[in-house]
Amino acid sequence: MAVSDTLATLAERAKAAEDHVSQAATKNREQWQAEVDRAREDAQAQAAELQESARDAEAKISQWWAEMQQNWRNHTAKVSSDIETRKREHSAARAAHEADRAEADAAAAVEFALAVIQETEYAVLDARLARMEADDKAR
After folding, report:
1. b/e per residue, 103-129, with b = 16+ CB within 10 A?
2. What does pTM read for this prediction?
């Protein structure tokens, strides 16, 4: 997949996530739980795809990027584990505290995503410049 296609997919997924969260306010608890379960499954599938693409391209990617992908896989595994642990907690005070923490985690995830988008833009532009320089030297 070309970088421009990948960026278009990123933009589409970001918009879909925004729309999905906005629409969620109209759903009941059971519908919301189904949405959470679906989002978790999608996140796990995306992490698996990332891991597979990292294996496929391992020889071509930098050590830094490989470490970043591993850190992301570790992070998503911990988030999933934390979510499952929170589900087992029942007290109202604990639930309110956990809800606050979950909201803070979501806000942090959005901030991280924004940083990743910025880093992605830099990486894509840098890759394009490297290709231009390589093409110039090949002439």
Report:
1. eeeeeeeeeeeeeeeeeeeeeeeeeee
2. 0.52
